[in-house]
Amino acid sequence: MDLDNIKKDWQGTNFKPTIDEEKIIKMVDNKGQSALARILRYEKMGAVVLLFCIPLGYGVFSKYWEVLAFYILSAILGLTWQVCKIGKLKKIDMLHQGITEISGDFYWYRKAMIKEFTIGLIWFVAFAVIWGGFELVNNSEHFLSHWVVFVVTMSIGFLLVIWIYKKLYWNNMKKIEDSIKEVEEFEKDNIE
User: What is the pLDDT of residues 51-110, one digit of tens each?
Assistant: First the structure.
């Protein structure tokens, strides 16, 4: 009889577990930290690749100084942007920041990646037009065959860039976003 009464009392109470900030951060840390570490690693690799692309571009595009100048300036600006993103990502500390700060920094990065992707596509088209224009005009005897090769190569490059962004960045950002939403919902339910 006493056991039944205790069971009824237990079920009748409006028990809400309390959770402290440390437990919430550990929830984010399980899924989000590894995705954040991967994104940070990819950004660092991107900076190294851009650094190596500067001398490589000199060898490939030195035929036309306008194309070379546009390429090197773009690579230097891209390297500066990479360093900025790396600095912002390194500031995210899942063990010592609150969920509001973490989500604010993450959503800044997410918006920055959308802008980067959009500007990158515009840059890709502009560079293709500039470089392709010089190449096609100066090789007029083989214009059609060069034009077909150029369009196919640029299309493959374009699809490769989309695949890289999706595989390396968007999938990991989705994991971090899901972790943040899970914690925010848990905090909301815990407050109510």
Answer: 998 888 888 888 888 888 999 999 999 999 999 999 988 888 766 777 778 778 888 888
